[in-house]
Amino acid sequence: MQKRIATIIISFISAISASAQCSICTKTAQQLGDGPAHGLNGGIIYLAFIPLLVIGIIGFRWWKSEKNANK
Question: Membrane-spanning residues where (predicted)?
């Protein structure tokens, strides 16, 4: 069950073309051109993904320990 959920989540994440730029970053990136704009967007997503991944792992482990403690 968990593998199926993980596969679904990964397929949705990989299919989404995310735009993580604020309005100021978007204007700056538009002036730089298309290539640097994609690089800037990729960097923003990378910097946001790592802390969210760590929080997700900690939350999942906490949930599992609470679930096992209640049994």
Answer: 44-63
> Where do the domains of the chain lie?
2-70
Share of the chain above pLDDT 90, in %: 17
What distance, in Å, lies between the first and last C-alpha atoms of the chain? 20
pLDDT digits (tens, 9 = 90+) for 4-14: 778 777 766 66
Q: Do 28 and 44 form a contact (C-beta atoms < 8 A)? A: no
How many degrees, rounded to 5, is the angle at CA 16 between CA 13 and CA 22? 110
Q: Is 62 exposed, middle or buried (0-12, 13-18, 19+ CB in 10 A)?
A: exposed
**0.85 exceeded by pTM:** no
